[in-house]
Amino acid sequence: MQLIDTHVHINFDTYKSELEAIRERWREAGVVRLVHSCVEPEEFAGIQAIANQFPEVSFAVGLHPLDAGKWKDDTANQIQELASSDSRVVAIGETGLDFYKADDREHQFQVFEAQLTIAQALDKPVIIHCRDAAAPMAQMLHNFWQTRGPVRGVMHCWGGTPEETQWFLDLGFYISFSGTVTFKGALQIQESACMVNSDRS
After folding, report:
1. Residue 70 scores a pLDDT above 90
2. Residue 4 has pLDDT above 90, yes or no
3. What is the b/e burial string over 85-123, where b = at least 16 CB atoms within 10 angstroms of the residue's CB?
4. 119 pLDDT higher than 90
5. What pTM was estimated for this model as a whole?
6. How far apart are CA 47 and CA 177, in angstroms?
7. Which residue from 35, 70, 82, 183 has the least number of CB within 10 angstroms?
8. Measured distance CA(7)–CA(94) in Å, rounded
9. 191 upstream amide cis, omega within 30 of 0
């Protein structure tokens, strides 16, 4: 079976000396394509270098919600230019909302909306991080659809309830589950996973 890993972070210094060995492991596992996600635009050159080294790697560019404080006046233009400059950029992100310990909610909303706007303008999907923010996230996406038009993408590392999962399925999103779905006590995530059809996960 050929697989596509839609979310990797292998640009960290920890992995630098063993990238070739990591590549062998993904090949042995049947992974033929990978999408390297981006936490902040400053990572772009390093991610691009990995894609130069391994042709099976595509990538995204964006700003993670936990790094929303790094957003500057020119960040939107920077993300749009980076995403337009290389045909291997297949998505915007990872972006989204993380209210787990946040005291910058309004700023996260602004940064997320700006990246949704870029994704829509470039007709690229978004990789969405959503933690303790399902209801405001769904409302924001719904409002965006109503006022600006649709966006597409994936709810990354999803851990919401079945009801919350349905909100994003109704908006046309794919749902991505991480290894937590295998945990014995993760009944809520498992219930959500059971309701997502194979063509949307």
Report:
1. yes
2. yes
3. eeebbbbbbbbbbbbeebebeeebbebbebbbbbbbeee
4. yes
5. 0.94
6. 23
7. 183
8. 9
9. no
